[in-house]
Amino acid sequence: MGDILFLAHRVPFPPDRGDKMRSFHILKHLGRSAPVHLIAFADDARDAEYGEQLARWTASRTVVRRSKSRGRAMGEALLTGAPASVTAFGDRRVRDAVKRILAGRDIDTIYVFSGQMAQYLPETHAARVVMDFVDMDSAKFAAYANSARWPLKWVHQREARLLGRFERHVAARVDVSLFVSAAEAELFSHTAPDARVEAVENGIDTRLYDPDGDFAALEAPGPLIVFTGQMDYRPNVEAVRWFAGHVLPHIRQSHAAARFAIVGRNPGEAVRALAKLPGVTVTGEVADVRGWLAAASVAVAPLTLARGVQNKVLEAMAMARPVVASPAAACGIDHGGTICVAEGERGFGDAVIALLDDPAAARAQGEAARRRTIERYGWSARLAVLDRLIGSGGAA
Fold this sequence. Notes:
CATH superfamily of the largest domain: Glycogen Phosphorylase B
Oligomer: single chain
Number of domains: 2
Helix content: 40-55%
Number of helices: 17
Radius of gyration: 21 Å
Structural class: alpha/beta
Largest sheet: 7 strands, parallel
């Protein structure tokens, strides 16, 4: 077996957010069987420094700082007729790096992580190509369009249409297209019936996310409800605004001391403003999310727009926390009934209240959830399918 070229839209380190967790563990898995050459974007100066921390799993690393503005990306998209989420990642330096690796190395497999990186696939090459879309992004923008007003509605409709066309074109060129859940894979199969599509689910490092692990404990007087996530991501923003504004007041009628902690990096003005509401804390970036999860009486995932497997739910389950999730946040996870699924202001709030009212039942649910993650979501089990796709049998 020859070398592997791994293209990623973000440096797969540290594994502290959903996309980086998946790309990091896949990169590690692939690196056990062949030399891996990583080419990835860095969102900021700190990300750019993380590339070298992947040396133990990679044969070479090329990290390019992404600095293109949204305005420039949209302008290029309008001029070229391409999706803006693709032009946002268009960069000559990455294109040159791909050409250099392909010319200088015996590349047997190209693993493309995230649809934005598919633009760097060569027109002709003997390597097998595995396209990990993760989620069906065109469906995400279609959902955005449904709830948006003009002119943003037109922008999202355009992106959904062009991105859908781009996804189908890419799927027709590659050996196999991967998605994070069976539901996402099935959804894409309906739009690209001739493509080979498979699901490779996310896992969770249950040794790291362990309530008995080595992390700093937090003092948590009174009931603590915790949401974790990247707080400049629109579905997360909408989720916490809804919960803080509409669900938390209902909960505090029964549990006046209940607090809601929004834990995650890059909260914008709309999220920071929630800290003015009674009982709401906005932490921003934290050194270790496990302390907050361990202190949580209940972890919540009230997303109305969610694609694939929600890592925030798996993390809370692995930390033996009782979880209340919306149907959208829960649908990609085979939780076996170990979390509560609820919707609507009253229904979601009542589910949280029931857990706060019965700490013994909440503890039992959390323990069952942890057992479920250990049995069902270990990374080695989730990624075993890659050995079939990229191993001696290949993806063809």
